[in-house]
Amino acid sequence: MVIENARIEEAAYQIMHNAAIDIPQDYLTGIKGMIDLEQGDLSAFVLQSMVENWEAATEDRRPMCADTGLPRYYVKVGNEARIDEGFVGAERSLRSATARATHDVPLRPNRVHPLWRTEHNNNVGINSPEIEWSFEPGADWIDITTVHKGGLFGTDYRMLFPGDGIDGIKRFFLDTLIAFGKRGLACQPAIVGVGVGGSKDTCMQLGKQAACLRTVGDRNPDPEIAALERELKDIGNKIGMGAMGFVGSSMVVDCHVEVGFTHTGGMPVSIHTFCLSSRRATARVHADGSIEYRTDPQWFTPYMRRETVGWDSQAAISSNSA
């Protein structure tokens, strides 16, 4: 069966609404848990105010933040999926959904030409919105995830060397969060994503995906990386900064680390903070045209983290269950 462009556009249009208005439950639970532990009065007040703001946004069906960020898409295509008019048709549907949602939600039209500052009042333009693609064997559906992330600050990169090791990553992480907090370059607390390895561009992609496409409480399947995630979260919350830079202990809702094989002579690292309004939503469009909505992107599958040349699904299942 062929997945029609109209269904792709319908799904993308709906998740644009969902992401802008409704906070994901995993993130809301994480913030509420931080309120219970926060000792800083102003920081606790900000967190409680944000919860009330999110509840009001859902009730009134209005965007949870006045700055609706830069809407973008992450699309996972099943290897058996057939798309009406192919990927060009799917991309056109996503761009159309973005333009319509900008007007209807409404989203703030943040996208402008970098030199001339001209815009189309719809968040669509040259290379906008960004669309990243991935693939999944043995599936005939399409997963569409939208993320509305601020596009100004909250990201840093450093080329470390192998000798810097895990301690070097921790130092960079600590330096970055302190700088972000002191200079107002992050909207905290936030999910912090760390990309390690790859080339510079893939390192940046991995860190942003780690921040935006994994849920609070999720852990990397590598136990040593999972332990690093927990340690970095703990370090971040002991800096002495809380919500929006006030004194406190609530800077990191969770920390996620993703890795990629890299050049033998280096260890690139990127750090990304998602927004305090953690805006993401996913739709799965099935081959029969039905659509399911959720807030967990399920982006990092065993297939995406594979190390081998080929792909043996049964071997992967056995390895993960061992």
Automatic annotation (TrEMBL):
Highest taxon in the source lineage: Bacteria
The keyword Iron-sulfur appears for this protein: yes
Keywords: 4Fe-4S, Iron, Iron-sulfur, Lyase, Metal-binding
InterPro entries, alphabetized: Class-I_Fumarase/Tartrate_DH, Fe-S_hydro-lyase_TtdA-typ_cat
Residues in Fe-S hydro-lyase tartrate dehydratase alpha-type catalytic domain copies: 10-283
MF terms (GO), sorted A to Z: 4 iron, 4 sulfur cluster binding; lyase activity; metal ion binding
Signal peptide stretch: none
PANTHER family assigned to the protein according to its UniProt record, in alphabetical order: FUMARATE HYDRATASE-RELATED (PTHR30389), L(+)-TARTRATE DEHYDRATASE SUBUNIT ALPHA-RELATED (PTHR30389:SF17)
Protein family membership: Belongs to the class-I fumarase family.
Name the UniProt record assigns to this protein: Fumarate hydratase
Species annotation: Aurantimonas marianensis
Lineage: Bacteria, Pseudomonadati, Pseudomonadota, Alphaproteobacteria, Hyphomicrobiales
